[in-house]
Design goal:
Two copies of one chain form a homodimer.
Chain A: H1 7-11, H2 14-19, H3 27-32, H4 42-55, E1 69-72, H5 86-98, H6 111-115, H7 119-123, H8 127-138, H9 143-153, H10 172-183, E2 187-195, H11 196-199, H12 203-207, E3 214-226, E4 229-240, H13 245-254, E5 261-264, H14 270-277, E6 284-289, H15 315-324, E7 327-330, H16 331-334
C-alpha cells in the first residue's frame, strides 16, 4: 500500500499529516467525519445511509443529483425557539420601537401587555392576538423596507435565555448535515411556519440556503407604482400558512418534487415528514427531541419532558414517529456540540 | 500570436479547424453564434449585451452566478397560444372525455357550448365560465393523478391551426435564449398565467426548466390521508393568479430575487417587465410581437395588427414599452426560424 520508505511513517500515523496539505482543507473533514458534532448512533447512521443509498450510481434507490431534495424546519430544528420564536422576539422589539408613535397601545390589548412586559399575559395570547401584533410589525411597508428592518434588527437581537443574537443560536449538528447533503448534491430547503420574507434575510449567511430555497408563511403583497417605480407593499393579511398540512402543500407548491429527507422537531412538522417518507425508494424523517436542559432547553411533553406551547413535541407525535420508522434524535445523547458558535 | 509554423494555417483560417476537436462540441456553437435563429438587430444585440454586462467580472453591472435570473412568460412567448391557450385545449378535450359521465352537461352552460363545438359561444365565455370548466377538468383528483392525466394528453394534443401537439409548437429562438442564458449561469424560470402544475409536467423536457423553476397560477390543494398515505387533493378554488401584478408578486414569492431579464408578449406581462427593469444595474425587458401571419399568427392590436382576446398586445403596452426602453421583437423580422421542430 505504501512505498517502502513511507512504511515507518505510516505506522506512526504520519502519512495523514504528510498528505494533509495536498487535500482541500474543507474537503478533509467531510471525508474523514462528515458529521463531527453527531455521536455515533442510530440518527447519524440513518443520515449517512440515506445519502449513501440515494447517491450510489446503479443502486436501486439512486436519485439523480437534480432531484435530491432535503427539507428543514427552522424553529427548534435548526435554531433555538425558546422561550419564544426568533420572529416573535423581532415582533416584540419592533412593537416597542413603534410604541411612541402609537400612544393608544398603552391602553389597548394585546399591545398593552407587550409594552408592560407582562409575560404571563403574553403566554396566554391567542393566535388572533399574535396576528394583530404581526399586522403592525410586519405589514404596511414595502418588501424592500421590511428586509432592511429585519437585517438591522438581527445583530441587535437578544435571546432572553442565552443572551445572544438569534443568528448565533444555530445548531452546529444541523449546519453539518446541510453542508454534508449539499456536498452530495442535495438541494437544501428551509420549510418553516415562520415568515418566508423574514428567514430569507439571513438564510444564505446563516445556513448557506439562498432565498429561493426558503419556503415559509407569507402575508399578502400588493403591486403598486410609487413615483413611477413598482413596489410590493406588505398587507396585514395571511396569504399562506406554511405549518402542519401547509408544509406538505408548500413543498409541492414551491418545489414540485418530494424530498428524500426531512428534519423537524414538533407537531407542526408531522405532515412534512409524512409527505416525505411516503415516497418511493429511500426516504428519511428525523425529529429533534429537546431533552437537554443543561445545554439547551428541555420540552416535550413527549417522554415526560416539560410541556410547552412553543414547539410542542407531543406523545402522539412520538407514537407516529415510532410507527412510521422516523428517527428521533436526542439532543442530549446524539449531539456532542449544540451551537455553531460556542464562545 | 501564433507560432511561426502556424501562420500560413492561421491566414487560411485553418487554426479554428485544427483547434475544434479540442473544444467541447456543445460550447462551440455558443462561441460562434449563440442565437442562430435570431437575425442581427436590436433584439439580438440587447440580449447579448445584457449577458455580457452581467457576466463580465469586474464590470460595474456584474452579477454573481447564483443571482442571475431570467424569467419567461409561456403562452405566446415560448410557445403558440392561438387560437386558444394550450391549457384551454386540454380543458376542452378533458371535458369531452368526461361528458359521458355527466349527461347534464348537454343542457347546461358553459359545458353545452363546448360539447356542441360552438366556437362563437366559446369566444364569448366569461372568466366565470372558464373557471367552471377548470373546476371540472383540473380539480377533484390528486396532484399525482392530475400530472398523469396531463402527461397522457400531451402527445395526443392537437393545435387546431398547426395540427400538431402543443409541445411541438415551441419557439426555437426562445429555446436558444434559454440555453444561452443557462450556459452563462442564469437560472431560467417560466412565469406563466397558466397552471403551474400543468406546465411542470413538460417544462424539463420541453424547455430544460425543472418543476421548481415553474411559477404559475394554482388552485388550492388539500392534504389528506388516504389508506394511511398522504395525498394532495386539487380543490376547485383559485389559490394564486400569476398574471399581471401577480407575475411580479409571484417572482418575489417564489424566487425572492429580481430577474435581470424578462420575456413576455402581452398585456399580462407588463408588471413582470416593470418589476424586472426597475432593478439596479443592467436589466432587459423584451416583448414578442406576433406580426407574422404567414409563419405563425398575427395579432395585437398594437401597430394595427388584428385584435384578439388571447394574448392581447395593446397599443398601451406598446407605448409603455417605448417609454420604458423595452425591446419589441418582431417575429417576422427578428426570427429566421419560428419552431423548434420544423418538419
Amino acid at each position: 500500500m505504501f512505498p517502502a520508505w513511507m512504511k515507518p511513517l505510516a505506522r506512526a500515523g504520519a502519512v495523514a499529516l504528510l498528505l494533509t496539505p495536498l487535500l482541500s482543507l474543507s474537503a478533509l473533514p467531510e471525508k474523514t467525519n462528515p458529521l463531527p458534532s453527531w455521536n455515533d448512533g442510530a440518527a447519524k447512521t440513518a443520515i449517512l445511509d440515506l445519502v449513501s443509498e440515494t447517491t450510489t450510481e446503479g443502486g436501486e434507490n439512486y436519485v439523480a443529483p437534480g432531484d435530491r431534495i432535503a427539507v428543514f424546519d427552522q424553529d427548534g430544528t435548526t435554531w433555538v425557539s425558546h422561550p419564544l420564536y426568533g420572529q416573535a422576539l423581532f415582533a416584540l422589539d419592533r412593537l416597542a420601537k413603534l410604541a411612541p408613535k402609537h400612544p393608544e397601545w398603552k391602553t389597548t390589548e394585546p399591545f398593552k401587555s407587550v409594552l408592560d412586559g407582562d409575560h404571563e399575559a403574553m403566554a396566554k395570547f391567542t393566535e388572533k392576538d399574535w396576528l394583530e401584533i404581526v399586522a403592525v410589525t410586519h405589514a404596511g411597508m414595502t418588501t424592500t423596507d421590511f428586509a432592511k428592518i429585519v437585517a438591522d434588527w438581527l445583530p441587535k437581537s437578544k435571546n432572553p435565555i442565552f443572551k445572544r443574537p438569534v443568528t448565533e443560536l444555530v445548531y452546529q449538528p444541523m449546519v453539518e448535515v446541510m453542508d454534508y447533503l449539499r456536498a452530495n448534491d442535495f438541494r437544501t430547503y428551509i420549510v418553516t411556519g415562520g415568515g418566508q420574507d423574514f428567514v430569507r434575510v439571513y438564510s444564505k449567511r446563516v445556513y448557506g440556503i439562498p432565498p429561493e430555497q426558503v419556503i415559509g408563511s407569507s402575508i399578502v403583497t400588493k403591486f403598486e407604482m410609487v413615483d413611477g417605480k413598482p413596489v410590493l407593499m406588505r398587507d396585514p393579511k395571511l396569504f399562506f400558512n406554511d405549518d402542519s398540512d401547509g408544509k406538505a402543500i408548500g413543498i409541492n407548491l414551491f418545489i414540485g418534487k418530494r424530498p428524500q429527507i426531512a428534519f423537524g422537531n414538533s407537531d407542526g412538522d408531522k405532515e412534512m415528514l409524512q409527505w416525505t417518507t411516503a415516497g418511493d425508494g429511500a426516504r428519511l424523517g428525523l425529529l429533534v427531541l429537546h431533552d437537554d436542559a443543561k445545554r439547551e432547553v428541555a420540552y416535550g411533553p413527549a417522554d415526560g419532558l416539560p410541556d410547552t406551547k412553543v414547539g410542542t413535541f407531543s406523545q402522539a407525535l412520538m407514537d407516529t414517529a415510532k410507527q412510521s420508522g422516523w428517527i428521533v434524535t436526542s439532543m442530549k445523547n446524539d449531539w456532542n456540540r449544540i451551537f455553531s458558535r460556542d464562545d
